[in-house]
Amino acid sequence: MLFVSTLAVFMASLDGNIVTVALPKISVDLSAGFSYLAWIVTGYLIALVALVILFGKMADVYGRKKIYILGFILFGATSALCGLSQNASELVVFRFLQGGSAALFFAVSRPILLENFPAKEISFAFGVNTATSSIGAVMGPLVGGLLVAIDWRLIFFVNVPIAIVASALALREVPRGVRKPGSESALKTFNPLSSVLFIIGISLIMAWLTFYDPIVGLLGIAVLVPFIVSEMKSKHPLVNRELVRNKGFVYSLLSVELLTIGYSGIIVAMTFYFQSVENYSPAYSGLLIVPISLTIGIGSVTAGRIYGRIRNPNRLAVIGALLCGGALFAVAIGIGAETSLWVLEPTLALIGLATGLYWIPLLTTAMKFPSPDIVGTTSGTFSMFVNMASALSITIAVALSAYFLPHSLATQVYSGGLVNLPLAEAKLFRMGIESAILVMGAFNIASVPLIYTVMKEQRRSKAQTDIIVSEETVKPQQEP
């Protein structure tokens, strides 16, 4: 069961990291500028964000097993379409479709774990899940670098056999599940207006960051205004009101949002640093990124193992956030000072280790705060906002990295048309990458006060639970 549930995460993680390493080659073959490159990555994430809640509700009606298997099948099919793309526009469209298919299995992967693992073991299951994701992330740059050397299209075609195997295993291993009474009404709670406004608003804001057009950004903000109005008036808002009122969940989610913005873009930034500034090959660049992904797995499993053994596990999250922020600052300074790989690589490894330390405690805490009756909605909401933060992080990394370069020169760099930058331009590109990583580090540090607020809410929630248990224990003794 655990193997099947984590296979989905492995496949999605493998695909994401393979694509990142292949971006320079893709841009050469398809003549895609740096703005298109950002959308090849973020288009996938935006589609996932848009549909994950709807698919979570569909799973409650039609069964998680059916949705899970359908996700694998469609992911394999859309991956094949990505590999057959003839231009950048086609690839962006197919990446949107691929992200939508990934939303199917993302929506149910955590609920499947929560339904089939005891409460004491769930943090370990989440840890293994995250570690498996890290293995996919480790293999992504390595396999991607090798495949890109042959043909970048292979990075998408490799998903097809994995999807076939995953579908067969899910068909055999995943329990059918029991449909809860009244689950048919779940789809009626889907608010299409809020969903459309939310995705359009977020997409326009990201387009502003990649195309540097402030009018587009203002339009995005303008679209979010009616979204907020729709959420306030709707009987069935996009974000469940029980979750909105749950302070523990909200603070946990906000903490993870800041940390995700402070992490996800680092691989994109380092990929272009290694390939465009240092002029390393895709395979060697992928190898240099491995320490980040490898140590996430180590940190995640470690945090999962000790989660239930310490008084307040979110202290691990505080340590992880501070370590990650400090390591990002060190990497940014190292890039500016042209530090050797002997110093840079251990620092990248520390970023991964710190990410694993904070991710598992906050994820487990966020899933435990709300009622178990809305676990599907909770998981879908969590995934939606985390993937939105990941897309925003990647967009910020691309936008800031090119910020100091003239637009025409930035397009050449990101399209692979100019690998050996003149000294002055190389310095500007370094400054951009350095700035992007400094901003990521600041987001990590900014999450610490929120994590302490989560710890405060945990203590308050535990105190209320203890009072309820105490009252229920006393009541029978007071009866005649």
Polypeptide structure, described:
- The protein has 480 residues and is an all-alpha fold.
- Helix content is 82%, strand content 0%.
- It has 19 helices and no strands.
- The relative contact order is 0.14.
- Residues 465-480 have low confidence and may be disordered.
Q: Mind telling me the CATH superfamily name of the largest domain?
A: MFS general substrate transporter like domains
Total discrete domains: 2
Task: Indicate the CATH topology of the largest domain.
Answer: Growth Hormone, Chain: A
Helix count, DSSP H or I runs of 4 or more residues: 19
CATH class division of the largest domain: Mainly Alpha
- Weakly predicted, low-confidence segments: 465-480
Radius of gyration, whole Å = 22 Å
Q: Structural class per helix/strand content?
A: mainly alpha
CATH architecture of the largest domain: Up-down Bundle
Number of strands: 0
List the helices and strands in order: HHHHHHHHHHHHHHHHHHH
List descriptors.
single chain, 480 residues, Growth Hormone, Chain: A, 2 domains, 19 helices, 82% helix
List the helices and strands and how they pair.
Elements: H1 2-30, H2 34-62, H3 64-83, H4 88-116, H5 122-150, H6 154-157, H7 159-173, H8 192-211, H9 214-233, H10 241-245, H11 247-261, H12 266-277, H13 282-306, H14 314-336, H15 341-368, H16 375-401, H17 407-414, H18 423-446, H19 448-478
Helix pairs in contact: 1-2, 1-4, 1-5, 1-7, 1-12, 2-3, 2-4, 2-8, 2-16, 3-4, 3-7, 4-16, 5-13, 5-15, 8-9, 8-16, 11-15, 11-16, 11-18, 11-19, 12-13, 12-18, 13-15, 14-15, 14-18, 14-19, 16-18
